[in-house]
Amino acid sequence: MEKIISKQYTERVTGSGKINTMKLLTKTTVYFLLIMLPVFTAGAFYLYTKFNKEIKHETDEELVNDKLQWMRYLDSASVNNPVFSINTPEFNLQPTEKAAQSKHKLKGVSIYQEPENTYAPFRQLTQVITLNNKNYELVLRKSLIEKDDLIRNIVHVMLAAFGGLLAFVLLSNWLISKRIWKPFYRSLDQIQKLQLNKLEALVFERTATHEFNQLNAALGSMTSRIHQDYTSMKELTEDAAHEMQTPLAIAQSKLELLLQDDTLSESQQQSILTSYDELQRLSRLNHNLLLLAKIENQQFPVTEAPDLCKVVEKYLSLFEELIKEKELDIHTDMADTAPWPLHPALTDILVSNLLGNAIKYNYPQGKIRIKITTDTFSVTNTSQLPEIPANELFQRFKKHSSGYTNSNGLGLAIVKKMADSYHFHLSYQYQNGEHTFTTGA
C-alpha cells in the first residue's frame, strides 16, 4: 500500500517519464538567450548599417564641398583659354567630348595603390563641367581607408559592449531567478524527503511571492490528506487483522472439538478437516499481514546483532525431519562469526522463510547450499520449478505458477519488506535448475 501510494505521489510531484527535462532556471536562461541573441544581432547590424551610411553621407558632403571649391578656383583662373589636364588619385580633370552635366554623380570605387600593392576603397564624385567654353570631366575622390578602420574599431567596440551587456544580463537574470526560485526549491526538497510511514506535519515557509505561497498551501493540504488516508488504511488493516485473530482461534478450536467426535461420518470429518486447513491458512495470512504492518512501521528496532550461523543451525535442526523425508543433501559454508544487523525475530523469519522455501520446493534427493560471509547470506536449492519471473518475484499474494502450492504469496514479500525497511539488498538468480536468494549489506 505504501509503495503504491509513494510511487503515484512521486510520479505526480516529479513528473517522471521518458520526456527529456531541464531545470526551470536553465530553461528560462536558454529561452532568454535564444530571444536576446537575434535582438542583439539585429541591433548590431542596424547600428553598423546606420553608421556606415552616415560616414558615406559625410564623405559625399565633403566631396561636394571640394567640387565647389575647385570650380570657384577654375572659374577664377585668368589663363588665356588654357586646357587643363590634372590627374591624381584624389583629383582628376580631363577634357572630354561628353555633354555638360548639371548634377554630379556619387559612387564607391576601388583604386590600385602601388606602394601597398592592393586596392583601396574610395568614394568618388564625377561631373562634366564647362570651363572657358570647353567641357571637362571632373573627378574627385575621398579615401575610405581610415573611415573603414574607424568602422572596424567601432564594430569591435560594439561587439565587446553587446557581449558584455549580454553576459551581464544573463548573469543578473540567473542570480535574480535563483534567488526568486529559492523558496520553490526548499519546498521541493521537503516533498522529496517525505516518507509516508514517517510523515509529520509539513510546515512550508511564507515567502514574498504570492504564487509560491499558493503552491505551499496546496502542498500542505495535499500531504495532510495523504497522511490521513494512509493512516486510515493502515489502521484499518491492523485493526481488521487484530479483530480476526479471536474469531479465527474460536473457529479452529471448535473444529478441533468436532474432529474428535466419533459419531461423525467420514465425509463429514473430511469436510471439517478441509475447513480447518483453510482456517489455518487464513490464520497464517492474518499473521503475515500483521507482521508486514509491523515491519513497515519499523516496530522491530535493532537492539542486538544475532549470530546468523546459530540461527541457521537452529532451523536446520527444526527442519531436520523434512530434510530427512526428502533425503536432501545440505552443504553449508559459514563464517565463524556472522553478526547480522537485524532484530532477532526478523532474523528468524528471514532464515525460516528462505530455508523453508528451499526445502518445500525441492525435489527428493535434491541439494541445498547455504553460504554465510561477514556481510552476505545466500540459500541455493535445486528444483524442478521454472525461474520466477522478475516482475512477479516479490509481489504480495503472487504464487508465481501452479507448482507453488500451500502458499499465500507473502513469504518473499515479507523478506523484501525487511530488506527495504532495514536497508540491505535482496537478489534472486536462477541458473542450471538452481534457485539462489542472496541477502546482504
Automatic annotation (TrEMBL):
Annotated Gene Ontology cellular component terms: plasma membrane
EC class name: transferase
Pfam families in alphabetical order: HATPase_c, HisKA
Coiled-coil annotated spans: none
SUPFAM superfamilies: ATPase domain of HSP90 chaperone/DNA topoisomerase II/histidine kinase (SSF55874), Homodimeric domain of signal transducing histidine kinase (SSF47384)
GO molecular function: phosphorelay sensor kinase activity
Hydrolase recorded as keyword: no
Designated name of the protein: histidine kinase
Record field: transmembrane: 30-48, 150-176
Histidine kinase domain span: 239-441
Keywords, ordered alphabetically: Kinase, Membrane, Phosphoprotein, Transferase, Transmembrane, Transmembrane helix
Catalytic activity: ATP + protein L-histidine = ADP + protein N-phospho-L-histidine
EC number: 2.7.13.3
